[in-house]
Amino acid sequence: MKTLSLMLSIGVFVVSGYFFINDFRDSTELNYLIYMSLLVILMLICVVGVMINLPMIIRQRRKMRSLIYNSYSAKRIPNKEFDKQFSIH
After folding, report:
1. What is the separation of C-alpha 59 from the centre of its chain, rounded to a whole number of angstroms?
2. Residue 69 Cα to chain centre, angstroms
3. What SS3 state is found at 42?
4. CA torsion angle 49 55 56 58 (round to 10)
5. C or N terminus of the chain, fewer CB within 10 Å?
6. How far apart are CA 6 and CA 74, in angstroms?
């Protein structure tokens, strides 16, 4: 779920950035200023979403590396059922 949220934040950021760059012009119309400010706010929300989700995903991957390393390490505590299931001697 965290990965989906991260991907969605990045995707929306890219799409809103595309529209921001594509529609950028020098204008003082109120509707245009509101539209551009909403795009900037949406991009800032996406940046906050990335900042929230990225550390959680990195931390989760570190735990997985530790589990894999400890499961197959020579210094690990043997578990007979685990060893039989994965044919580890």
Report:
1. 12
2. 24
3. helix
4. 130
5. C
6. 36
pTM: 0.62
Q: For tokens 């044919």, name the residue.
A: 87
* Ramachandran region, residue 87 (left: φ > 0; alpha: ψ -120 to 50; beta: rest): left
Contact 50, 9 (CB under 8 A): yes
Q: At what angle do helices 30-72 and 2-22 cross, to 10 degrees?
A: 150
CA distance 16 to 38: 10
Rg of the chain (C-alpha set): 23
Q: Are 46 and 10 in contact (CB under 8 A)?
A: yes
For 69, the enclosing helix (H) or strand (E) is helix 30-72
